[in-house]
Amino acid sequence: MRGSRPAIMEPNVPKAPVTWRVFGLELQLGEPEALVRERACRELGIDPARVRGFRLVRKALDARKKNGERRLRFVLCADIVVDAGFRSARLARAERSGTVRRAPPAADLDPRVVHPSWRAHPGAHVAVVGSGPAGLFAAIVLARGGVRVTIVDRGSVLERRGSELVAFHRTRTPNPESNLLYGEGGAGTYSDGKIYTRVDDPLEVPILEEIVACGAKPDILYDSRAHIGTDRLHFILPKLRARMAELGVRFAWNTRVDGIVHDHGRVRALQTSAGDIAVDAVVFAPGHSARDTWAALAEQGVAFEAKPFQLGVRIEHPQELVTRGQFGDGPEVASLGAASYGLVSRAAGGVPATHSFCMCPGGRIVASVSEHGYLCTNGMSNSTHSSRYANAALVTTFTPAEFGNGPFDGVAFQRALEQRFFDAGGGDYHAPAQRASDFFAGRASRGEMRTSFGFGVVPARVDELVPELLRDALRRALTQFERSITGFAGDDGILVGLESRSSGPVRMPRDFKTRRARGFVNFMPVGEGAGFAGGIMSAALDGAHSALALLEHGLID
Ligand SMILES: Cc1cc2nc3c(=O)[nH]c(=O)nc-3n(C[C@H](O)[C@H](O)[C@H](O)COP(=O)(O)OP(=O)(O)OC[C@H]3O[C@@H](n4cnc5c(N)ncnc54)[C@H](O)[C@@H]3O)c2cc1C
Questions:
Q1: Of the candidates 44, 48, 42, which has an alpha carbon nearest to the alpha carbon of residue 20?
Q2: Mind listing the pLDDT tens digit for each residue in 111-136?
Q3: CA of 134 to the centre of ligand 1 (A)
């Protein structure tokens, strides 16, 4: 408390402790995290011995250059719990300057805590379609609220899903029911497992705590670039499944939903490949690739509309090039691991904006394929980010103005391009590839191109395979990104395509408050496949919030 007046405890104030959120705390590389508590106490002007609770909220590496100089440091934010009556001159000053403010109230995944007037529905049965993050976290909330839940997924349980993927690589023929997109954990099961968002939703913490309880490292609770990695996800998911089974959740694997039985806007049953399943309500979370399921439901009167989606290619570099470009080559860099990036080029002169997305440091490019004959890429990595390669999607938003206003015009557009890339790769999941320098110059690439893509790449004119609008946007972006990371747009940058499912091309209109699908009283479209999420955490959040809404607004009218 150097330089501050002693703290005063005010008499006659309620005893409930108060949580203050302290922003702008700093740690130099190599300094222990324990120092943050000390620094936060100093900011508040409180004796550390009087602190009732402390937690890190966010830790971000600042690697920006200032006046041409890079000063690597961590910037942190922390919550400090103190007695309600605590005041100090420092706290008053920090509050005025905005470096300290009251922390938002904690949130919970248990509906009995969120809605104290919660009324149980004994015997009610909700089917959750899809075991991706949206479906899983919807199911957790419902089960904690005492509802009987069955998760229905067309894909396999994790232990079986792995061998099905190996078979895809061996035979070069995907299993349309269980693959990199379908099966336990959904599309993110073979991913980098990035779980940060920019939405700052209060449910993020309880969701992350659930994942930590299943074996994730506790630093995901505050790391601004938190990622889990495929290897660790495969350790976590079975534990999550066991915890859910303890809550009474049942799982129907390898069971495809083909339609619904409904009357007057009420779904009575799911029609599935294993027969009908009677339901009181449905949470529908089929992910961004359930093209056949969307079409079947549209035939049965469920509303769909076209929405903008992202289209692009993946770019891969040697990880070393990215790490040097982001961190420089000082001796302290080794402790930071593989660098990532997030790059944006703004729209100008009729050329749309482009940004990097789903960056996988030390990762590899994978074929995120669910239908034979269509090629689509994505990226994954393990928890250690140990591969020699760094990849990311470079994407531009395409709107119905480019592909049509019909509900499934975006799907048709995606399909046509994915087929074009499949054919250009030779029809066996080799991916068309072109050096960034050649893409920029509009010429074929020569010589061997080494990438992490397991099916292999073939040299192709990616600049001619993509729509003109995307080509122009990517060329502009490459010029700009080269200024941030030297070599980004050179011979070492390899473009591999197509990246067409970074987000879904349809939305299922739903009521803002009750989240029920238009025209239905007990059918809730959620997650990425319904057009309300784009990523693991945002899908989990949408699932959890939707389940809370389902319970709040009445499971059965
Ligand atoms: C390779 C890859 C890497 C990714 N990396 C990241 C990342 O690092 N960070 C991030 O935030 N996001 C990442 N994503 C995106 C993320 O995985 C998705 O945004 C997220 O999984 C969407 O969640 P969801 O629950 O809405 O749907 P999904 O996870 O897609 O789950 C949908 C589930 O529904 C099932 N299903 C579909 N149709 C039917 C049917 N008819 N009957 C029964 N079941 C059905 C599927 O089998 C699937 O399991 C990645 C995606 C891929 C493919």
A1: 44
A2: 888 776 666 677 899 999 999 999 99
A3: 8
